[in-house]
Amino acid sequence: MNAAVPDIEISEELIRRFDTLGPRYTSYPTADRFRANFSAQNTIRYLEQRAGRSHNPPLSVYVHLPFCESLCYFCACNKIITNDHGKVAEYLHYLDREMTMVAGHLGTERETIQLHFGGGTPTFLSADELGQLMRMLRSHFNFTADAELGIEIDPRTVSPDTLAMLAGLGFNRTSFGVQDFDPAVQEAVNRIQPREMVETAIVASRRAGFESINADLIYGLPKQTLSSFDRTLDQLIELVPDRIALYNYAHLPNRFKGQRLIRAADLPSAEDRLQIFLMSMRRLLDAGYRYIGLDHFAKPDDELNVARENGTLHRNFQGYTTRAECDLVAFGMSAISKVGDSYSQSSHSVTGYYKHLEEGRLPTEKGCQLSRDDVLRRTVIMEIMCGGPLRFPAINQRYEIDFIRYFDAELARLIPYQEAGLIEITVEGIFVSPKGRLFVRGVGLVFDKYLRQPTTSSYSKLI
Ligand code: SF4
């Protein structure tokens, strides 16, 4: 089967040839390359370097809220499964400590243009707790009037009143975990949420005034078939979310314990996954969505698509964004910050996170100080991941290099991509074709110097 629409045409043969294992590049170097010798002192040094400068990029803030009431078997997030809502108060207490320390080093004047609550399940928190957290954030950060405030929502945990309350707190973007509407699939992954529940939540979000509504789907789940996923797409398209993310399920039971509860025999075959992917792509494009890159689709007038068309799309830990280069300060267990030429990641476990803060230290567990070559490669990879174009003169001027010489070996490795019509390489730069947008990860990883070294991480394929 081909996914053929005016915008983009992808064949099975192309996918078989160019679908590679690789990172998703929400950062470069990727988190598996962070080092344990990057300490809280390093984090502080980068925060304070920013505090002393007059021209700084704006801030993006991320808060990791790890609690969930039940385990979805496919989940690969860092979460805590509990029914004890009393745990939230303690977590908020330490979040406040961490924010106070970070704001103390960074200063509170910088404009904050983006906030994202991820998890876990952010709506595990009660209305009062979410209100408390927003007051905490507003006391430490200076949000602009047009800041993007986004929250991930598990439809099972919200009512129309919760959504109105979230809009009242200033949230203007929601992202719903839909995954699959088929009852057999939902049972096989332990996540029961009938279509009516999702519909109620999406309609209530719109009524509450949310500007952008995203829905996540996952293909490759147990019990999924081509026709069952076709029905899921019918139902989701009817609800007209502004954006749709179509993730593939990576079955890594050795790494994620919960996935051992999924019977391997129930998983669709590699061939079925490919057909489900191609059918989904065709259906979403036929329904009027535009392909942004990797797993993301958006309506034509959605700002993500407008930015893609203008060449102003960016990528950070929150995925694709229209917001230009920001420093990202992230709070909570395992959260990753990016400040200047550094990344730092907090303790993976909640006990480690609390312990550091209790002892009066930032909870940095590992991180990375980028070299000049890392910064250059990060720019190249991120531009490619956003569909380019990657213009050599601009890179040459910014980094004082001769791109064609510096990346001589990498450009040679890109010849098969050029021959297949996925990219065009000229003396001016690298231009990604519409069908090439599906394979940007493969193009980007050619520039990843760290892939020449061994890693303990297992990367997934596109399909
Ligand atoms: S998928 Fe979301 S709700 Fe389910 S266990 Fe993972 S973080 Fe929690």
Structure notes:
It is a single chain. The chain is an alpha/beta fold. The protein has two domains: 26-327, Alpha-Beta Horseshoe (pyruvate-formate lyase- activating enzyme); 371-453, Arc Repressor Mutant, subunit A (Orthogonal Bundle). Helix content is 37%, strand content 22%. It is built from 17 helices and 21 strands. It has a nine-stranded mixed beta sheet, sandwiched between helices. A three-stranded antiparallel beta sheet has the order 16-17-18. A hairpin with a 3-residue loop joins strand 20 and strand 21 (429-432). Helix 3 runs parallel beside helix 4, helix 3 (87-106) packs across helix 11 and helix 8 packs parallel to helix 9 (270-286). The longest helix is centred in the first third of the chain and has 20 residues, at 87-106. The protein starts with a strand and ends in an 18-residue tail after the last helix. Mean pLDDT is 92; it is low at 1-6. It binds iron/sulfur cluster (SF4).
Question: What is the topology?
Answer:
Elements: E1 3-5, E2 8-10, H1 12-18, H2 40-51, E3 59-65, E4 67-68, E5 80-81, H3 87-106, E6 111-119, H4 127-140, E7 142-153, H5 160-168, E8 173-179, H6 183-188, H7 195-208, E9 212-219, H8 226-238, E10 243-248, H9 270-286, E11 290-293, E12 296-298, H10 303-310, E13 314-316, E14 319-321, E15 327-331, E16 336-339, E17 342-346, H11 350-358, E18 364-369, H12 372-385, E19 390-391, H13 392-399, H14 403-406, H15 408-413, H16 415-419, E20 423-425, E21 429-432, H17 440-445
Parallel strand pairs: 3-6, 3-15, 4-5, 6-7, 7-8, 8-9, 9-10
Antiparallel strand pairs: 1-2, 10-12, 11-12, 13-14, 16-17, 17-18, 19-21, 20-21
